[in-house]
User: Fold this.
Amino acid sequence: MNIVLWILQILLAVSFVFHSYMIGVQYEQTRTRQGFQWMAAVPSALRKFIAIGELLGGLGLILPALTGIAPWLTPLAAALIALLMLFAASFHLIRREYPNIVLNLLLLGLAAFVAYGRFVIVPLS
Assistant:
């Protein structure tokens, strides 16, 4: 189970760090892409806040567990990412962006599983 959790942590981390880069740094190129029309409806400060949160969450899935420094941050990062995805799904539901909701719920489930796995099943010491 530890290997499964590590694989999920890495996949989620890559996904969130990449998405953070896309909405934070590559804003002009990303905002016109399919599935990213929501960026026009979000104030710039909120978009940057989301990008920073996703970057920190992605790094928090890997670095504390890998270094052994404050490993309790890894399941906390996973739980907060799950919460972020719940908010994102709600936002996309209001805008009727159903493909985004499916992705948000999938990421929510994976992040919640990592949080549960690292809090309960295979805690990091």
